[in-house]
């Protein structure tokens, strides 16, 4: 579903040469498929609204780049510094810092604690991806209505996974560039020693995890972005999002 149907409200944070920084907000009216998770999402009060920060040029016919942060990130001031936000803006791009559920200004628990999502149960994690993708689809609709003509998405780590998943359900994207993406929940858990037992038991659990998360896996559907607009970046020495994960996603994307 596309969330934020009643529209996004905007608040100017500061002015920029030729534009401004605008904070965007909309109600995230997420309806769960797994009814046992409905109360958990209602309890995440700060995630009942989607949030994003838009570095917006005044001109029309613009290209926008949505940037999606990683796990435990999402603080807007830090994200502005972590990404080459101003270099992108000065190159003529609109830049949009999206905030995933349970992260950054959408985090209800203490700053040093792990985000509320993804966690808890497989169904809670799946529902969180549905919520995140619905919000991103609504954000694309808002940007196109605001005068943007092309939209690309780049994500890092958890955001890399989310950007890849987004590209399998959103046909209006012109570019997708997952950066050190997790790519596969089952691969990530196995490769980081989170699956235990004999080799046979590990293999069986891996198969179950692959099937369990198939509905929200970027590896189970084709990428809808034109092939010339697909890129995947991996880190050779990354010990969290291993290079093999990026390789698997790149192979699936045909790049």
Structure description:
By secondary structure, the protein is α/β, with parallel strands linked by helices. It has eight helices and seven strands. A hairpin with a 2-residue loop joins β1 and β2. α6 (185-191) runs antiparallel to α7 (199-212). It is globular and about 60 Å long.
Briefly say what this structure is.
The chain is α/β, with parallel strands linked by helices. The protein has helices at 38-43, 76-82, 85-90, 122-145, 158-167, 185-191, 199-212, 243-253; strands at 9-16, 19-27, 49-57, 62-68, 94-98, 148-156, 173-179.
The secondary-structure element order is EEHEEHHEHEHEHHH
Structural class: alpha/beta
Rg, alpha carbons: 18 Å
**How many DSSP E strands?**
7
Strand adjacency order, main sheet: 1-2-3-5-4-6-7
Broad shape = globular
Distance between the termini: 28 Å
As a percent range, the share of strand residues is: 15-25%
Number of helices, where a helix is a run of at least 4 consecutive DSSP H or I residues? 8
Task: Describe the largest sheet.
Answer: 7 strands, mixed
Question: Averaging pLDDT over every residue, what do you get?
Answer: 95
Poorly predicted ranges: none
Q: Which percent range fits the helix content?
A: 25-40%
Outline the fold blueprint.
Blueprint: E1 9-16, E2 19-27, H1 38-43, E3 49-57, E4 62-68, H2 76-82, H3 85-90, E5 94-98, H4 122-145, E6 148-156, H5 158-167, E7 173-179, H6 185-191, H7 199-212, H8 243-253
Parallel strand pairs: 4-5, 4-6, 6-7
Antiparallel strand pairs: 1-2, 2-3, 3-5
């Amino acid at each position: 579903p596309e969330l934020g149907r009643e529209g996004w409200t905007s608040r100017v944070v500061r002015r920029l040469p030729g534009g401004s920084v605008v904070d965007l907000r909309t109600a995230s009216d997420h309806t769960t498929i797994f009814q046992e998770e409905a109360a958990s999402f209602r309890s995440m009060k700060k995630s009942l609204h989607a949030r994003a920060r838009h570095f917006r040029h005044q001109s029309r016919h613009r290209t926008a780049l949505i940037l999606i942060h990683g796990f435990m990130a999402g603080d807007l001031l830090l994200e502005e510094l972590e990404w080459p936000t101003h270099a992108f803006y000065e190159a003529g791009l609109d830049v949009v810092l999206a905030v995933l559920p349970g992260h950054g200004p959408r985090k209800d628990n203490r700053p040093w604690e792990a985000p509320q999502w993804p966690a808890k149960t497989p169904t809670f994690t799946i529902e969180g991806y549905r919520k995140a993708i619905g919000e991103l689809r609504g954000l694309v609709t808002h940007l196109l209505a605001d005068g943007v003509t092309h939209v690309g998405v780049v994500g890092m780590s958890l955001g890399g996974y989310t950007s890849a998943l987004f590209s399998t359900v959103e046909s209006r994207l012109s570019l997708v560039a997952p950066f050190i993406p997790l790519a596969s929940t089952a691969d990530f858990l196995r490769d980081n020693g989170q699956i235990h037992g004999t080799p046979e038991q590990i293999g069986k659990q891996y198969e179950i995890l692959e099937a369990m998360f198939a509905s929200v896996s970027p590896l189970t559907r084709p990428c809808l972005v034109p092939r010339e607009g697909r890129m995947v970046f991996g880190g050779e020495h990354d010990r969290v999002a291993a290079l093999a994960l990026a390789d698997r996603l790149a192979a699936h994307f045909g790049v």
